[in-house]
Design goal:
CATH class of the largest domain in chain B: Mainly Alpha
Structural class of chain B: alpha/beta
Strand order of the largest sheet of chain B: 6-9-10-3-11-12
Structural class of chain A: alpha/beta
Oligomer: heterodimer
Strand order of the largest sheet of chain A: 6-7-8-3-9-10
Number of strands of chain A: 10
Shape of chain B: elongated
Order of helices and strands of chain A: HHHHHHHHHEEEHEEHEHHHHEHEEEHH
Radius of gyration of chain A: 35 Å
CATH architecture of the largest domain in chain B: Up-down Bundle
Number of domains of chain B: 2
Largest sheet of chain B: 6 strands, mixed
CATH topology of the largest domain in chain B: ABC transporter transmembrane region fold
Shape of chain A: elongated
């Protein structure tokens, strides 16, 4: 994990920002110059005014001075306002349209094993922090960088001016700066120490607030009377957060108080010296005014610089997390691979001594697994919860790679394919599939509107048994699912959702069909229809069917029974029944209730 | 006073009393901060005037330095007081904000279930949260209001006191028109006029701007919510499987850019308008500055006032201008912020429609009866249940079956009084469920819905439903649900945290395992009526059988309702209710219904034929 320096991050951000929005450069420059000119103009003008009055200049001269001053100040302030507002808008725009889209695109294209494991999710959350608001991370850096530089230059200009006339005060100012920075640094270190804990409390509160307001959770909350429990948790988190914040506030207060004391010391020294200089006629009164302004102004620049610098530092660490995420590399093959058009269909599949454990754990989910699927075969994969069925699907579909062993498709190692092309070979239906909050059309085709074949969509909706429902809707296939993007959007029931997901699978029409518990939420008649559809669609294709409903195995050519990551039994339904072991036992347990027994009438 | 203003004023008072409840000292400290902060800049204005004059008039070093020490001393004291009060205000800000979030959450608990599904109310909740956050939080609202209104009043007063020196007329021996004009106190009205023009322009512009800003912010809330959706899609690893396998990247990125862009255009328009206003404002301020320097300068040139006072008088005029502007503007801002806060109060004061009775429930016997119940969801014409009547006797086991969308889950939701029927009535032990208290209702049912929810806290807290945790009883329930073996293998046993919420190591459980934990929760409750909606859909055959067997024991002494597509579970039920498109089409035991050879018979055979 590389930590990029602040300068490197500044160059990175502005490099991208200026390329996307060239006007930003000019806004930045104008803001910079005008921010320096405004206080200078004010200081110079005050002393010029007093000077003109002391010297008894003519009224015309005086009017000239104040007119010039008012005009100059107006112009500089107008430029400043304009450039500042424009610059801020541009930085928000570029954060959202470029930086955000970049990382979204990146995460969507990463290999799955870089996304699912808990540790990887943490990395992603950290990377997204940089985009969270207008005040931190990338946009924060864009704001604070210009502030930091303006204040540094301001300090230098004022410091030089002070040095010319009263070098000893410069010494005082520099000493103050150093002590100030040290104290601020100490506060920063303390903040970082507590940040993890504070973040945790923050996330927990966010989690609670979110969960409590989700309508789906409302049923259980009410029916189990969970309200007081959740409320108590809330109070606990509040106390936790306040506890962690306390030292930080104390520290900030200490910082402010020491600052106030320093200002008093500075004024004491500055006034003592300057008053004497006026009395001794070393400088005149107007210069006195000017220099007092410079001394006070220096402290202003210094304080603003310190604040901005530490904010910049924090923003920079968030940007580093962002950049590190973008640098993640895919380990799967994204380059040239075997030409999928040259493959003969239907496909054959082979698992050769495949073992697998998830990246964050040691437990072997699949242990030295070997099996073959002939071209065009329909395989049923059965076994207890946790036996490894879904894991096999994840491995076969290319979401993960085996820890050891090989997976072969038509004899070729899966790694030899370009992974994106490889995924085109499969239509997969997962157990926990949920539609996206877009239109029915987009959910089925998964493509942009231009690339969607509408007739094909209508056909697969019909095959999935969803046509009656869709035709009953006013917007038909253009109906939005859920109301996130369209208030007239609807919600599908569990069964309707499963049919929708089936339609998506059918639309893709790939040579390898994998269905994981596709009928769990369907009523018996819909379930039967689905089996028939499945039978029809698996003709000419190789397919794998996972289900707890052992009835489905009868559609399949062969059954693989998995236990603890190994194949326990293998064969056709009839063969395994005859084998009279685990499969037979499972089948009988389910069948028991369906078969006629003594309580039934003859 | 029109309604809106009245409401806003009410909102402001409500806010103040709300904050007083959470943090009583807060308002006091804000007042202290206001007084000292508003006075602070005047220290320098006054002293620089005196010190400058002393320098010009060549006073002695000790005289000058005495004033310097006083200046430094006052700055120090004020600085310390202000730092202390601001620190206190910031600290309490967190407390106040968290409390507000808590009230929003608690309100959510009291809403009718139907209301939580209402999209308008969902928007209200979002607005309430943003509204109490968007203006910097309610704490900062109070701070800003006090600062805006009261500190500007104080500063107006201080400025006027300071400026009184300008309207003193001195005896002069000159007949020049200009000098006599300047000497006349009424000439100060020129400044007043220019100041009034400047203030009026500024106020009119800021009113226009805040209206526009409010509009844009409302649109932004909507846009942010949509954008939040895209964020969730990218970050949610569960969706990640399908995004890759179905190559959805291009579609998502395209939609992302498309849906966001329009928000940015609105915002840009607002920025441009804002810039125009600020520059116009600035122009008038500079005109005032020029006139101020001219007027005050002439007075000095003619010796009517000291040179040292020139800069101070101009500073006082500028401060007066700013204070009056700020005073007026803070009304505008307060109004605007109050509108935001209105969202919060509208939500908190939202009325619920469901009325609860007072009857308690303490029995172990339950009878349920539906009498001519009909129901359609809000905003939908189609009836989901149509004239359904049936009776469930004590300790009976009832199965509810039917095709997808036939109304099974809705029937259960009505029974649990998540909704009220449009027609007909539902009684428990002869009493209409509307007459039971809220607490009585939670005592009656133990429900496991198809889309049950477990929270990312410890298993035992989840199973105990947040009540007092009886460890032994938790273990017994988990055991009956068939998941205790799995829990025993976990490092922390029943103290293990489910899912991942933060730093603590949580455990991911599969769908089937979660279902068993939800069952354990229902068992722990030990209610007289147990309702299970698809309790075994994610379980393998052996686990499924285990649950059925276990349940036969568990519900032996209870009344129970099963919804299931697995018709095999119907066999051990006393009665089966068959729904079709909201109508009760058949009711009877398994054997009776098989003889009728109707819908049930069809569904049964569709499943059973594979098990021959």
């Amino acid at each position: 994990m590389q930590t990029y320096s602040i300068i490197s991050n500044i160059r990175y951000i502005y490099g991208l920002a200026f390329k996307a929005r060239t006007k930003m450069k000019f806004y930045l420059i104008f803001n910079f110059i005008s921010s320096l000119l405004i206080p200078l103009t004010t200081s110079i003008a005050s002393s010029l005014v007093v000077n003109a009055l002391i010297n008894n200049d003519s009224i015309t001269t005086y009017i000239f001075v104040i007119l010039g001053f008012a005009l100059a100040l107006f112009i500089f302030e107008a430029i400043n306002v304009f450039s500042f507002q424009k610059y801020n808008w541009e930085s928000t725009f570029v954060r959202v349209n470029d930086f955000w889209v970049n990382i979204s695109s990146k995460v969507l294209k990463l290999d799955y094993d870089e996304v699912e494991p808990k540790s990887k999710q943490k990395e992603l959350n950290k990377a997204f922090e940089a985009l969270d608001s207008n005040w931190i991370g990338i946009e924060g850096m864009m704001k604070e960088t210009s502030v930091v530089f303006i204040n540094i230059v301001g300090m230098i200009i004022y410091g030089v001016i002070v040095a010319i006339y009263i070098p000893i005060i410069l010494l005082v100012l520099i000493t103050m700066s150093i002590i100030n920075m040290l104290l601020a640094k100490r506060a920063d270190v303390l903040l970082n120490k507590n940040r993890e804990k504070m973040n945790d409390a923050f996330y927990e509160r966010y989690y609670l607030a979110n969960e409590i307001s989700k309508p789906d959770n409302g049923k259980d909350i009410r029916l189990y009377g969970l309200e007081s429990w959740l409320d108590k948790l809330f109070v606990k988190i509040t106390k936790k957060r306040i506890k962690y914040e306390a030292p930080i506030f104390r520290n900030n207060l200490f910082l402010k108080l020491s600052n106030t004391v320093f200002l008093a010391m500075r004024d004491f020294i500055a006034y003592s010296i300057l008053v004497v200089m006026v009395i001794n006629k070393t400088i005149d009164v107007s210069l006195f005014i000017f220099l007092i302004g410079m001394v006070a102004g220096f402290s202003g620049w210094l304080n603003a610089f310190t604040d901005a610098y530490f904010r910049l530092k924090m923003d920079s660490s968030q940007v580093s997390a962002y950049r590190n995420y973008l640098k993640k590399e895919n380990k799967f093959n994204h380059g040239k691979g075997i030409d999928i058009k040259s493959l003969s269909f239907p496909l054959s599949i082979e698992f050769k001594n495949v073992s697998f454990s998830y990246p964050d754990s040691d437990k072997m989910i699949i242990d030295n697994l070997s099996f073959k699927i002939e071209p065009g075969e329909k395989i049923a994969l059965v076994g207890q919860n946790g036996a490894g069925k879904t894991t096999i699907v994840k491995l076969l579909s290319g979401l993960y790679r085996p820890t050891s062993g090989k997976i072969l498709v038509n004899g070729y190692d899966v790694n030899e394919f370009n992974i994106d092309e490889y995924m085109q070979l499969q239509s997969v239906l997962f157990q926990d599939s949920e539609p996206l909050a877009f239109t029915v059309l987009e959910n089925v085709s998964c493509k942009t509107k231009e690339s969607t074949d509408i007739d094909k969509v209508k056909e697969v909706i019909r095959l999935a048994g969803l046509d009656e429902k869709i035709n009953s809707l006013p917007n038909k296939e253009n109906t939005y699912i859920s109301q996130v993007f369209d208030l007239s959007g609807i919600k599908f029931s569990g069964g309707e959702t499963q049919k929708l997901m089936l339609a998506r699978t059918l639309y893709k029409n790939a040579p390898l069909l994998i269905l994981d518990e596709p009928t769990a939420a369907l009523d018996p008649l819909s379930e039967e229809k689905m089996y028939l559809t499945y039978e029809k669609f698996s003709e000419g294709n190789t397919s794998i069917f996972i289900s707890h409903r052992l009835a489905t195995t009868q559609f399949c050519d062969r059954v693989l029974l998995l236990e603890n990551g190994k194949i326990k039994e293998e064969g056709s339904h009839e063969e395994l029944i005859a084998l009279n072991q685990t499969y037979r036992r499972m089948f009988d347990i389910q069948a028991k209730y369906y078969r006629k027994d003594d309580s039934d009438e003859q | 006073m029109n309604n809106k203003k009245k409401n806003n004023l009410k909102a402001i008072f409500n806010v103040i009393s709300l904050v007083k409840k959470i943090s009583p000292l807060y308002i006091v400290v804000v007042i202290i901060d206001t007084i000292f902060s508003s006075l602070f800049p005047f220290i320098n204005i006054i002293f620089s005037y005196w010190i400058l004059d002393d320098l010009i008039n060549e006073a002695s070093k000790s005289v000058i330095m005495n004033k310097v020490y006083l200046l430094i001393g006052l700055n120090l004291i004020f600085g310390i007081i202000i730092a202390l009060s601001k620190s206190f205000i910031e600290k309490q800000g967190t407390l106040i904000e968290y409390n507000l979030t808590r009230t929003i959450a608690n309100k959510g608990f009291t809403l009718d279930y139907e209301q939580t599904e209402d999209n308008e109310i969902m928007n209200m909740i979002q607005q309430a949260r943003d509204g109490s956050n968007g203006s910097g939080g309610i704490g900062s609202f109070i701070h800003n209001t006090f600062n805006g209104v009261f500190s500007s009043i104080l500063q107006i007063i201080y400025s006027l006191i300071l400026l009184s020196g300008l309207i003193v007329s001195i005896t002069i021996n000159d007949d020049g028109r200009l000098i006599n004009f300047i000497n006349n106190p009424l000439s100060a009205s020129i400044i007043l006029m220019v100041l009034i023009i400047s203030v009026v322009v500024s106020t009119v512009l800021s009113i226009k701007e805040s209206k526009l800003g409010y509009q844009v912010m409302m649109e932004n809330i909507d846009g942010n919510r949509r954008f939040g959706y895209f964020y969730n899609v990218c970050v949610n690893y569960k969706k990640g499987k399908e995004i890759r396998l179905y190559d959805m990247h291009d579609m998502l990125i395209g939609l992302m850019k498309d849906k966001r862009f329009s928000i940015e255009e609105n915002w840009e328009r607002f920025v441009n308008v804002n810039i125009k206003f600020l520059i116009i404002n600035n122009f008038f301020n500079k005109v005032l500055l020029f006139i101020a320097y001219l007027y005050v300068g002439l007075k000095a040139i003619y010796g009517l006032i000291s040179i040292g006072s020139v800069v101070s008088y101009v500073a006082a005029i500028t401060t007066l201008n700013l204070s009056v502007t700020r005073f007026l503007r803070s009304f505008v801002t307060a109004n605007q912020q109050a509108s935001y806060l209105q969202h919060y109060f509208s939500y908190i004061n939202l009325n619920t429609k469901m009325q609860y009775g007072k009857k308690e429930f303490n029995s172990n016997d339950i009878e349920v009866e539906f009498k001519n119940v009909s129901f359609a969801y809000v905003n939908q014409k189609e009836k989901v249940l149509n004239n359904v009547s049936f009776k469930l006797n004590s300790k009976e086991k009832l199965a509810i079956v039917g095709l997808n969308g036939s109304g099974k889950t809705t029937l259960v939701k009505l029974l649990c009084r998540l909704y009220d029927p449009n027609e007909g009535s539902i009684t428990v032990n002869g009493i209409d469920i509307k007459e039971y208290s809220k607490e009585a209702l939670t005592n009656i049912y133990a429900v496991v819905f198809q889309d049950f929810k477990l929270f990312s806290y410890s298993i035992k807290e989840n199973v105990a439903g947040g009540k007092e945790v009886d460890d032994e009883r938790v273990i017994k329930s988990l055991d009956k649900a068939g998941i205790m073996d799995r829990v025993n293998k976990m490092e922390k046993g029943i103290d293990t945290i489910l899912y991942q919420r933060g730093e603590e190591k949580g455990v991911e459980v599969s769908g089937g395992e979660a279902q068993k934990i939800a069952l354990a929760r229902a068992l722990y409750k030990d209610s007289a009526l147990v309702i299970l909606d698809e309790p075994t859909s994610a379980l393998d055959p052996e686990s499924e059988a285990q649950v059925y067997e276990g349940f036969k024991d568990m519900v032996q002494s209870k009344t129970s309702i099963f919804i299931s597509h697995r018709l095999s579970s119907c066999k051990f039920c006393d009665n089966i209710l068959v729904l079709d498109k909201g109508n009760l089409v058949e009711i009877g035991s398994h054997n009776e219904l098989m003889r009728k050879e109707n819908l049930y018979y069809k569904m049964w055979n569709a499943q059973a034929k594979y098990y021959k």
